[in-house]
Design a protein that fits this description.
The protein is mostly helical and 174 residues long. It has helices at residues 15-38, 45-60, 67-89, 95-107, 115-140, 149-173, and strands spanning 9-10, 13-14. Helix content is 73%, strand content 2%. It has a two-stranded antiparallel ribbon.
């Protein structure tokens, strides 16, 4: 008997050796668990600290002006105002429609109410863009030569409908 293990075996493996390996893995897992439990950082600690500092600044009357953030907000407002003016000029903007889209944005978790105008613009522009693209692909380039006139019209209609309902479906899924 050459190479016989000195202790008991199970399926050809030395039981003491396998037990030693498993004990080592268990000890390593315990040490790793203790390390992870001891070194856990509170994710809200930095946020609470920043809020406390901001509260102290406001109490002292110091108002920090974040110019970069303000110009970004102003730029967004100017852009949405231009879109709003364009839509109002086309007579497609109604207050009830804006409020309904703002509600959908809020349900989607988007807090910027000014994006309601962008969604309304997308519902106006996307059917035109997708319709023209579908017409060019289906009719003009003859990309699907085996399709009959009904299938071609159906593809065109689906593209226009997807352009109109696309922003609403996106918000509903978000």
């Amino acid at each position: 008997m050459i190479n016989t293990p000195p202790g008991p075996t199970l399926l050809g493996f030395d039981v003491f050796f396998v037990g030693t390996i498993l004990s080592g893995i268990a000890a390593f897992a315990v040490i790793l668990a203790i390390y992870a439990a001891v070194t856990v950082k509170d994710p809200m600690a930095s946020r609470v600290k920043a809020l406390n500092e901001r509260r102290d600044e406001l109490k002292a009357g110091i108002v920090k002006a974040n110019a970069k953030k303000r110009t970004s907000l102003i730029r967004k407002t100017e852009g949405t105002e231009r879109v709003k003016d364009t839509l109002a000029g086309l007579k497609v903007l109604q207050q009830s429609q804006i409020e309904a889209v703002q509600q959908k944005l809020a349900h989607a978790g988007i807090r910027n109410k000014e994006l309601a105008v962008v969604v309304i613009l997308a519902r106006l522009v996307l059917p035109i863009v997708l319709g023209i693209t579908a017409a060019m692909v289906v009719y003009w380039s003859d990309f699907f030569p085996e399709w009959g006139s009904f299938k071609r019209f159906a593809a065109f209609a689906v593209a226009v409908l997807a352009g109109y309902k696309g922003p609403e479906v996106f918000l509903a899924n978000k």
